Amino acid sequence: MTRTQPEWIAAFKALPGNVSKSDLTRIDMDGNEQSRPGAVLILLSDGEFGPDVLITERAAELRAHAGQPAFPGGAIDATDESPAHAAIREAEEEAGVSRDDLEVLGVLPTLWLPPSNFLVTPVLAWWHTPRYHSEIITEEVARVVRVPLADLVNPANRLRVQTPSGFLSAAFDVADMRIWGFTAGILDRLLALTGWEVEWDKERILPLS
């Protein structure tokens, strides 16, 4: 069945193959021999308040990245056919979505995350039939949120945070959570590259709490 994609999705669909690693990150390194391959799913859809993106909030009890908002995703297993396969599998497990309800738009350059030593491939997808196929009860995910792009670009919701080590990260205060780190960095660049970004105060810097 052929589904008509919304006009706004075209700007995102044009990114795979047309953006470089430097367009998405300041880290000009490709990891090391111990780096593990991973993938995340950037799942876009039309929602009640316009275009949105799916974000999961990690459980507070986790040892790593506890309570941190993130794209659904994780390590690429030996049984995964591709980064897209891995990202969708993780989204099915973490967010209760189905691969039958989405269409992969393409993959972005693989990026290195030094803190976890993952080489992460972002996978862009359009959620043409937004629905959940299971009650979302996992040990890893506290909740799943569809965040409107309009909320992400609202200057009142934008800031930068500084970690104790001095690292500055883009951040978004939306849906009663603060998105920062890798996820916020990707969102920041995608909004700029697709023309969604509006002017905001980049000097609004708060300590990471």
UniProtKB/TrEMBL annotation:
GO molecular function terms noted in the UniProt entry: coenzyme A diphosphatase activity; metal ion binding
UniProt keyword Manganese present: yes
Keyword Transmembrane helix: no
Residue ranges of every copy of the Nudix hydrolase domain listed in the record: 35-168
Pfam short name (any one): NUDIX
Keyword set, alphabetical order: Hydrolase, Magnesium, Manganese, Metal-binding
InterPro entries linked: CoAse, NUDIX_hydrolase-like_dom_sf, NUDIX_hydrolase_dom
Cofactor: Mn(2+); Mg(2+)
Protein name, entry field: Unannotated protein
Organism field: freshwater metagenome
